[in-house]
Specification:
By secondary structure, the chain is α/β, with parallel strands linked by helices. The strands form two sheets. The protein has a four-stranded mixed β-sheet.
């Protein structure tokens, strides 16, 4: 799972890594990996706080962001990564299967670049960067359109071309229809 890789990488470069994980099984696994992880914030102050694909699952993102802001040291950095409500598979290609995949019960809120920044500003963060990235290549999009499911970058790996994937990603990001939002804020 992605969160374990992120914690392990951060552990290599940070003096102290702490996580918040609501799911008991995931929290236990992280603790077994030697990562300090809690079910609720422990009121420590941090230089960097990251949320990777979390904010879209929160019933009350304002309250959570205000609490996290209190945990961020002056001059600290807040990083938020989330899916883009304006993803090309939704807004350009109108892929019903991808819409069903994205608009599931666990995604309480979806954001685009503008709405994510408004949320952050409303909760006291100053924008350092607000950008989009395209994580999945053209083969993945073609597979979604042809088969109505994810995994095209694996299943159709023979259609992967680094230069083409980079050009495709650049084009989507320039049009603000990349798949992922990347927000960096500070106090």
């Amino acid at each position: 799972m992605r969160k374990w890789r992120i914690f392990k990488k951060n552990k290599k470069v940070a003096a102290h890594v702490t996580g918040i994980e609501l799911m008991d099984e995931a929290r236990q696994r992280l603790q077994e990996e030697g990562i300090s992880v809690y079910k609720t914030p422990n009121h420590e102050r941090y230089d960097v706080i990251c949320m990777f694909h979390v904010i879209e699952h929160l019933n009350d993102p304002d309250t959570v962001l205000r609490d996290l802001r209190k945990s961020l040291r002056a001059g600290g950095v807040f990083v938020c990564e989330t899916c883009n409500a304006d993803d090309a598979l939704i807004t350009k290609y109108h892929c019903k299967a991808f819409e069903d995949f994205t608009y599931w019960s666990e995604h309480v809120f979806l954001f685009n670049s503008e709405t994510l920044e408004k949320l952050m500003l409303r909760n006291g963060f100053l924008t350092v960067q607000n950008l989009q990235i395209q994580r999945y290549p053209l083969a993945n999009h073609l597979y979604w359109l042809a088969n109505g499911k994810p995994g095209g970058h694996i299943e159709w790996n023979e259609f992967r071309d680094e230069e083409l994937d980079q050009r495709y990603a650049k084009m989507l990001v320039e049009r603000k229809i990349g798949d992922t939002l990347w927000y960096i804020g500070s106090l």
